[in-house]
Amino acid sequence: MIEAWLKRNLWRALAGALALWCAGLLIEIHGLPVLGGGIRAGLAACRADLAAIRRAQAEAGAAQAAVNAAEERRSAANAKRSETDYAHDLARALAAGSAYAGSNRCPAGGLRPESDRSAASQAPAAAPGGSAGLPAKLPADPFVAVSRADLQACTAAVTYAVAAHNWAQTLPREDDRAPER
């Protein structure tokens, strides 16, 4: 009985299913206000969202460029100030080193006073056991002689190290930075 009914009404069932499928497809494509507008309305909403995203990206890019430019200006000013401070400090330190070297100059011909120069030309006496001997008269306080070039090189190196330390102190610390969002 069902077989006979299907044979007689199959074309009607298929035609009805096809009609319903076509109606659903038309509603999806063209939309109904009750159902939310369909594909075209969804596409328009996606285009509007995409335009809003692009505007937001452009605004964020401009804001980040402004932040980067401000940081570059701050960093350049900091570097210029540090270089100027270093140049002034180096000039002062080298002048102080030259003044020190000028006021603490060793007498020409060695470390001994003028009265002992004749004895300075003689070889020191040999110590017992064949080791090198010490001069008979040593200065009262210990004395270290440094060449003027070494004095200036050490002064420049220390001044540079102090300037680098001072510059590093001007850099923002990790815990001073704003937290990331």
The succession of helices and strands, N to C, reads HHHH
Largest sheet: none
Helix content: 55-70%
What spatial form do the alpha-carbon principal axes imply? rod-shaped
Number of contiguous helices: 4
Unreliable segments of 5+ consecutive residues: 112-124
Structural class: mainly alpha
First-to-last CA distance: 72 Å
Radius of gyration over C-alpha positions, nearest whole angstrom? 46 Å
Number of strands: 0
Summary keywords:
181 residues, mainly alpha, 4 helices
What does the secondary structure layout of this molecule look like, with pairings?
Elements: H1 2-30, H2 38-103, H3 117-120, H4 148-170
Brief summary of the model shown:
It is built from 4 helices and no strands.
What do these coordinates show?
This protein is mainly alpha-helical. The protein is 67% helix and 0% strand. It has four helices and no strands. The chain has helices at 2-30, 38-103, 117-120, 148-170. Residues 112-124 have low confidence and may be disordered.
